[in-house]
Specification:
This protein is globular. Helix content is about 35%, strand content about 30%. Helix 1 links the parallel strand 3 and strand 4. Helix 1 packs parallel to helix 2 and helix 5 packs across helix 6. By secondary structure, the protein is of the alpha+beta class. The strands form 2 sheets. Strands 1, 2, 3, 4, 5, 6, 8 and 12 form an 8-stranded mixed sheet that branches. The longest helix has 16 residues. The chain has 2 domains: about 160 residues, Ribosomal Protein S5, domain 2, CATH 3.30.230.10; about 120 residues, Alpha-Beta Plaits.
Length: about 300
Amino acid sequence: MHLSTLAPAKVNLVLRVGPIRQDGYHDLLTLMVPLDLADAVDVRIGSRRGPITCVVPNRPELDGEGNLAARAAQLFRDRFGFENRIAIRIEKRTPVTAGLGGGSSDAAAVLRCLARAFAVRDRAALADVALEVGSDVPFFLGAGSAWAKGRGERLRPALVPPLHLVLVYPADPALAIRAGEAYAWLDEARRGTGARRLGRAGPFRLSLMGNDLEAPCLAKRPALSTLMGLLVGTGATVSIMSGSGPTLFGVFPGRSAARRAALAIEAGSERGSELAVLLARTVRRQPGVTSWRSPRSASSRSTKRS
């Protein structure tokens, strides 16, 4: 069986971070929305026992069992008792280690494909597997935009109007931020003052947007403040950091305004700078899973019809 789906990126429109829990994680209240920026994920399931393989063309450092998608497949097999060979292929379009959830989304995409292939309908069990892979994975198994609490596993659907975004991702390794670093910097900044109250999930409005991890990350990576200024200077209504960064994004009044801003930021960036500027729009629903079809066979059908 050969299945395919898309693995959308996400942004955190709201990210409130509470105290550290006994399990070492922080309590969260976050509003996440999927984007039309997405990786393409293909999953082949063999009829016989075999290994799990994972390849990411042009990104060999992401190949193999260390990829979250491969880990998701292994945990799925362990939980539900399957041993079939699984081959995963991911066409990466979402920047890596960018605060956009790309790896978590790939993992959720694989779980959706495997659940379809093996007719697994136990949503609670799938959610347990997703959380074992990573805190953001349960969100990508959900229906779409959602408030998430706890580690991210307690989801409540949210209505978010279509938003036009410009994403600015600095690929310079000197600006990279690991999630563990971001939370450690926040804990350091809060030492002696305590964590803020998380508040409650409610109807979305632009004035709610904010990210508790942003201030300590900008303090450690001052160059990100300049990039945020570019977004505001080109017309962003609001500009914040997504997740644990380093990607920054701005909300614009419409697609045309976002496109003009993206072009202006690209034109103003230094030649040769490692800066990716991406247009994106929020979407309401996570994508479905379909049987894979060769582009060649689609072309043949079109020719026959004509």
